[in-house]
Amino acid sequence: xxxxxxxxxxxxxxxxxxxxxxxxxxxxxxxxxxxxxxxxxxxxxxxxxxxxxxxxxxxxxxxxxxxxxx
Length: 70
Description:
There is one protein chain. The protein is mainly beta. The chain has one helix at 23-31; strands spanning 3-10, 41-45, 51-55, 58-64. The longest helix is centred in the middle third of the chain and has 9 residues, at 23-31. The protein starts with a strand and ends in a 6-residue tail after the last strand.
């Protein structure tokens, strides 16, 4: 069973000279971290329409900060 560890917020507004990573680039990056060696890392759609980064048994939901209601 997956546990949602924490929600990660992002924004669609891009600042000048800011590097933007695609979801697949983030998965590739996470796969290179030695501490995560042996953990399955994947990207899934969530029922809410956001993205879930799954690292081992933990899921991190990636949502747009402009749509987040606090």
